[in-house]
Write a structure and sequence with these properties.
The chain folds into two domains: 3-295, Pnp Oxidase, Chain A, CATH 2.30.110; 317-419, UbiD C-terminal domain-like, CATH 3.40.1670. It has eleven helices and 23 strands. Strands 5, 6, 7, 8, 9, 10, 11, 14 and 17 form a nine-stranded antiparallel β-sheet that branches. It has a five-stranded mixed β-sheet with strand order 19-20-21-23-22, with helices on both faces. A four-stranded mixed β-sheet has the order 1-2-3-18. By secondary structure, the chain is an alpha+beta fold. A hairpin with a 2-residue loop joins strand 9 and strand 10 (159-162). It has helices spanning 3-12, 28-36, 63-70, 77-90, 169-179, 194-201, 212-218, 295-316, 346-357, 376-386, 389-392; strands at residues 16-19, 42-45, 55-57, 96-98, 106-108, 129-130, 134-138, 145-149, 152-156, 159-162, 184-190, 225-227, 236-237, 242-256, 259-260, 266-267, 270-282, 288-289, 320-324, 334-339, 363-367, 393-400, 412-419. The chain starts with a helix and ends in a 27-residue tail after the last strand.
């Protein structure tokens, strides 16, 4: 389904709120959205000051909302994504290029990013940001497509400054193109099929894989529809609301930032990579999309990360029940693994396997199945009552983590794990207190 169909589907279930009052795109829009963050309703801002197009926010900030989009319960979302990843690995479906793409109903030959609805989010942000656009590029050596999401700051009518994290496939593409003195052509796609958004955040795919096949697996095998671009050789998403065509310039860096990042702290201003925009196309009445860096990222990246960790750790360690990349860990800096070990020592094995499955993490906590991994208090209780730091902590110094984690030195930091599994002989001491379950409807309570 395309983006507007997903919004309409949620609207038919009463899960979309329309903000009818005009809002300023600078700080006010994000301020209103923040008041609703995490609720089981997304927002559409119908009137944005000085802009023609409405913009939606909040599609990913509640897992129940995400489940509604894909037709499963909230707790089933990671499993659904894992299943799609497995189908993709076994029998990938290639995208198709179509004519008369909806994304090209209107062509802006002289691009002006100022005509699009791009909000300035956090109070200290360096400018308007695209926070959830899907970037498509082709490997300069093999031609394989990459699909990914990066923060993009509008710095002029036809200029964007962007961040590329260390280790990302797009950065490898760019660095190899730059070494040849060549620009890297890209399309920046706003308002996309939720399944495509999943494939853009799905970890574990090889640099030789076209991740768009993951979206196809989520959509019942239907190939992703692409459109031939007007000014660059790489395609756009045919059913996107807006497609921006451009080139990442070699050996050019310009100021980008600050930006209120997923960690809850500001990423500092620095000279970063630059996109020269050559064309903008869009639907006749586009519904644009934005994202608050917070719960929307924690859920979207968390669900795909959980899928990858669950699949990989289950292969290497027996007894794994569930995985949760919790919001308290910023969605992808740490996870909790629920398991019943088949023999002593498996907790530490699970910690090692999780780090291998999802390298951006800094922390892993392993607990028994009597611990609710979605309840931070229950997990914290397991850490303080079942983990002897001297025996049960795993510490890996000078490891590659995620550069957005301020606890690291530009991405190099310490990984650590808590083995909170009940040790042999401790079963009686760790039996949780239980009370009689009663039906309150049988009681008169005034």
């Amino acid at each position: 389904m395309d983006f507007r169909t997903a919004v309409r589907k949620l609207g038919e279930k009463g899960l979309v709120l329309h903000v009818k009052t005009e809002v300023d795109p600078v700080h006010e829009l994000a301020g209103v959205a923040k008041k609703f963050e995490g609720q089981k309703k997304m927002l559409v801002f119908d009137k944005v000051k000085g802009r023609r197009f409405p913009v939606a926010a909040g599609m990913w900030w509640n897992r129940e909302l995400v489940g509604e989009i894909f037709g499963v319960a909230a707790k089933e979302v990671p499993g659904l994504f894992a299943s799609a990843g497995k189908k993709f690995a076994e029998s990938p479906v290639a995208p198709v290029v179509v004519e008369d793409a909806p994304c090209q109903e209107v062509v802006m030959e002289k691009p002006d990013l100022g005509l699009l609805t791009v909000p300035t989010l956090a109070l200290l942000d360096g400018g308007p940001y695209f926070s959830n656009c899907v970037v498509i590029a082709r490997d300069p050596d093999t031609g394989v497509r990459n699909t990914s999401i990066h923060r993009l700051m509008v710095s002029g009518k036809d200029r964007i400054a962007m961040l590329m994290d260390v280790g990302r496939h797009l950065r490898s593409y760019y660095e190899r193109a730059e070494a040849k003195g060549q620009p890297l052509e890209i399309t920046i796609n706003n308002g996309v099929d939720p399944a495509v958004y999943v494939c853009a955040t799905y970890p574990g795919t090889s640099i030789s894989d076209d991740e768009l096949g993951v979206a196809s697996a989520l959509n019942g095998g239907a190939p992703v529809r692409l459109s031939k671009s007007r000014t660059v050789a790489v395609e756009g998403l045919a059913d996107a609301e807006v497609v921006i065509e451009g080139k990442m310039l070699p050996r050019v860096r310009e100021p980008e930032g600050p930006f209120g990042e997923v960690s809850g702290y500001y990423a500092k201003k620095d000279d970063r990579w630059v996109v020269d925009v050559s064309c903008i196309t869009h639907r006749k009445d586009p519904l644009m999309s934005t994202l608050l860096p917070g719960k929307e990222v924690w859920n979207s990246v968390g669900c795909t990360g959980e899928a990858a960790i669950l699949a990989q750790v289950s292969k290497m360690v027996g007894g794994v029940k569930n995985v949760y990349l919790s919001h308290g860990n910023c969605g992808f800096f740490g996870c909790v693994i629920q398991m019943e070990p088949t023999r002593p020592g498996m907790g530490k094995n699970a910690i090692a396997a999780a780090f291998a499955a999802f390298p951006p993490m800094s922390m892993v906590t392993v607990v028994n199945s009597d611990v609710d991994i979605f309840d931070a208090e229950d997990v914290m209780r397991a850490i303080t009552t079942r983990c002897d730091p001297l025996k049960d902590m795993v510490i890996i110094p000078h490891a590659a983590c995620h550069e957005l984690n301020p606890a690291t030195d530009n991405g190099c930091g310490t990984k650590y794990g808590f083995d909170c599994l009940i040790k042999p002989g401790m079963e009686d001491r760790c039996e949780k207190v239980a009370f009689k379950d009663v039906d309150l409807s049988r009681y008169e309570i005034v």
